[in-house]
Specification:
about 250 residues, single chain, mainly alpha, globular
Amino acid sequence: MWFEVLEGESVVQKFVREGNPQAFSNTIWARATLGLKGTALASAIDTKEVAEYLVREGKPQEISNTMWAMAKMGVEARILASAVDREEVVEKLVQDGRLQNIANTIWAMATMGAEARNLASTVDSKDFVQKLVQQGKSQNISNTVWAMATMGAEARNLAIAVDRKDVVQKIVQAGKTQDISNTIWAMAAMRVECPGLINGIKGDAERIMKNGDIQHVSNIAYALADLGYFEKRVFGAVVGQAERIAREAKE
């Protein structure tokens, strides 16, 4: 009920005038998490005045949460995205040191279809890549490489690091099938050779396919084929899940 009231034009304008970055971030994040749309509030946040205020005064987490929420709700926040991709804002996000903030922000940029040249360049820097693969969770890594591929970025440093044995082990053994799916799809989309990742999937194919839903299993199979890889063991595991996948498709 409160969220419906907040969508009134006069209430939104009052909220924006009197609010602060934390209030904007928390409210838009809550709407997105609940599956609400929030057109009026999102439109008010994606104005030059509010966007500039948010990136100037907001904490990195408030900026990234706002970006994530806007993308989650299907809002093409062009003004906000442009402000977030400025060098000083990207530096602010990176210096904060929280990988989740960067992962959320680059994911949001890709989901919105926004250009993020400064952010993408920073994400593919050797220093950041090393930190990401060493400290990041499987989901952080997979979402980041997926976002870079979706934006058409040439993430060579990131791609090389992701194919390292220790990183493959983290993604394949500790990650969900969705993480593996996003990562191999990204590698195929970027046309990057990834023998380490392919071997990791091959070695644990049955478990990966058994735990994946129809979209993730099909994405893995497609990406492997697109990379020219047709290993019987992997595709046999896909076929082994055919009955379950067919059943899920009907549900």
